[in-house]
Amino acid sequence: MLGGARRADDNGPARLGHLHGQMADAADRRVHQHPLARAELRRVHLSVRTFSRRLREETGTTPGQWLNQQRVDHARRLLETTDLTVDRVAAASGFGTAVSLRQHLAATLGVSPTAYRQTFRARERPDALPDSGPAAGALTPR
Question: Coiled-coil regions in this chain (predicted)?
Answer without folding.
Answer: none
